[in-house]
Design goal:
- It is a single chain.
- With 215 residues, the protein is an all-alpha fold.
- Helix content is 73%, strand content 0%.
- Helix 6 packs across helix 9.
């Protein structure tokens, strides 16, 4: 016996989306998202003020496709920076931080610099679009790794103990980002930057006999 629903004229039943089709749609959406995030880095490197339309064109997708993933430029930059930092974490996790603290610091600074250099245009755009606290939160893992190394170096007598670790971290941040600015302005070769950074930070952080006596 036909049901009331079946008796309604002109009503068409929607065929359920098959599992393979749904999986393909999800895969397509993920591919588009990946293309958009990659294009964000490229477009901003070419033009720090690249618009959403510029980024969509770089990705080879329409603006409506882009807006299906990200509501605005700030959200897009946020996601691109998160992905960049996550890739950086994969690199930094492989950096040996055991052994003599100053050598471990040198290795970590060098690896960190090359990551900063790769993403400096994106980070500069993020600093204009995103709250400072949000950017700081994204870098928490990397900062914690550096903090732990500096604390160990202080305990072992390799680094100064008359200065708090918070100040050593701030100084590292300022010098590394200052190097990025010099590279951006064409006054420093990016390949030389790690040596310049170490030349400032290691002498400033290394404990002396006076520092040891003071503690």
């Amino acid at each position: 016996m036909p049901t009331k629903k079946d008796a309604v004229p002109g009503r068409l039943r929607r065929a359920p989306v098959s599992a393979p089709r749904a999986a393909n749609q999800r895969a397509d959406a993920q591919r588009n998202r990946t293309k958009i995030l990659t294009a964000t880095v490229t477009a901003i490197r070419k033009n720090p003020d690249a618009s959403v339309a510029d980024i969509a064109a770089e990705a080879g997708v329409g603006r409506m496709t882009l807006y299906g993933h990200f509501q605005n430029r700030a959200e897009l930059i946020d996601a691109a920076l998160v992905e960049s930092i996550e890739r950086g974490e994969d690199v930094l996790r492989e950096v040996p931080v055991e052994g003599e603290a100053r050598e471990a610091f040198r290795r970590l600074v060098t690896s960190s610099w090359f990551l900063v250099d790769q993403s400096r245009a994106l980070l500069a755009a993020a600093q204009k679009e995103l709250p400072t606290a949000r950017i700081r939160d994204m870098h928490e893992k990397a900062e914690a790794r550096m903090r732990d190394l500096l604390l160990r170096g202080q305990r072992e007598g390799a680094f100064r103990r008359d200065l708090p670790v918070t100040w050593l971290l701030t100084t590292t941040h300022v010098v590394v980002n200052g190097a990025a600015e010099e590279v951006h302005n064409g006054r420093l070769d990016p390949e030389q930057a790690p040596r310049f950074i170490e030349a400032i930070l290691l002498p400033a952080f290394t404990a002396t006999a006076d520092d040891t006596d003071a503690t």
